[in-house]
Amino acid sequence: MNQLRIDSRMFYRIMLASGGLLLILACMFAFAKSVSAHGYIDSPASRAILCKNGVNTNCGNIVYEPQSLEGLKGFPAAGPADGKIASAGLAAFAPLDAQTSTRWSKVNMSSGTNTFTWKFTARHATTSYRYFITKPTWNPDAPLSRAQFDLTPFCTVQGNGQQPPETLSHSCNVPARSGYHVILGVWDIADTQNAWYIVIDAQFSGSNPPGDTTAPSAPANVRSSNVGTTSLTLAWNASTDNIGVTGYEVFSGSSSTPIATTSGTSVNLTNLNAGTAYSFTVKAYDAAGNRSAASASHQVTTSPLPTNDTTAPSAPTNLHVMGTPTSSSVSLMWNPSTDNVGVAGYRIYQGSTLVATVTGTDRVVTGLSPSTQYTFTVRAFDAAGNVSANSNAVTVTTAAGQTGATPWAPNTAYAVGDLVTYNGATYKCRQAHTSLTGWEPSIVPALWELQ
């Protein structure tokens, strides 16, 4: 017993002496958890989502989590360093920072009104969404830096401290550009010190290089392979051009909007319908925005769903809590299930009660009570209605509710340490001030600390 006590005291001294190292490790762990989610620009397709969809290749780990480009907020004064903007400064996603005029597949865009659509796998109270674009004179073969961008956002949408829905669209007026440019979308979070940084590689029609009016030849020999129930690979022979082909656009049926854009001569198409006939055509374009005639159409039918699919998905694994539970919510995440045909979604249970159905692999469960223990499990299901076994169970206790908090109100004097409630959350005053409309706690983190 004495030996055990001595060892315990010695261990305690070692731990104290190593406090700095432990603090560093704890910060690294906390930051690693913070980057596990939570949003990306889906349309126009961002660099990250084109990596996930196989249009961009050799992208590294971003193919598994395009929603995780989270870095310190404050751009352009703060945020990711120059040369690391596309990766949000995260070493795990450094391949995204490669920058040349031909490295990334591009989406076709026009100046003027455009719609930007975000998808969120977990939602945060939001300060704003801001959009930047590279200058007309930028160098596409140099690293992305602040000097490459017009640092006045061409579009700003206020978040008003609210959590976004799972899908959110903004209508923005994009400045006049021609040729290849990069658009940077920044999602500024209200209740953390971070923001999300999403880049879009856009091809604008115009006269770059000057005087080039010759379109590439039409792609030939469009063909398909690896045809499955919801995906296939499309390939074609390269086009020729008087200066050079920049990329290719893939079209489905009579639609004038491409479903994929790539700089190569093949693309993996996903999210197709099972047992469905498709007609695909391909166009080539150059740096001046000249587009070829469409290729000959290629007809292909995806494989049908099994008529007697009775195989359930595998059970989700590694269900765990992200971050620290609040007094009314908990953030859950799990590893995806597999299925012989495809997983359609997930159902989250609190005990035996269904609390949410989602298509992604994380969810913030809200509406909980303070100082209360909850046990959650998740089940996967497929399109045929087969349901997996339960995931592992995770038990969590919500934080205690704050006492002495009063509803926040404008034109009120607050002292340091005062507690207020706003939109169901509790905040502590950081700086003495008299409140004004527009200084709500979720909007001004310099004045209020989320409890």
Automatic annotation (TrEMBL):
Keywords annotated in UniProt: Carbohydrate metabolism, Glycosidase, Hydrolase, Polysaccharide degradation, Secreted, Signal
Region span, Disordered: 295-318
Source superkingdom: Bacteria
Main location class: secreted
Pfam family, one: fn3
A Gene Ontology molecular function term of the record: hydrolase activity, hydrolyzing O-glycosyl compounds
GO cellular component: extracellular region
Compartments where located: Secreted
All copies of domain Fibronectin type-III, residue ranges: 218-305, 315-401
Entry's Gene Ontology BP terms: polysaccharide catabolic process
Coiled coil: none
Compositionally biased region (Polar residues): 295-317
InterPro entries in alphabetical order: CBM5/12 (IPR003610), CBM_sf_5/12 (IPR036573), Cellulose/chitin-bd_N (IPR004302), FN3_dom (IPR003961), FN3_sf (IPR036116), GlcNAc_Chitin_IntDeg (IPR051024), Ig-like_fold (IPR013783), Ig_E-set (IPR014756)
Signal is among the record's keywords: yes
Name of this chain's protein: Chitin-binding protein
Organism: Paenibacillus nanensis
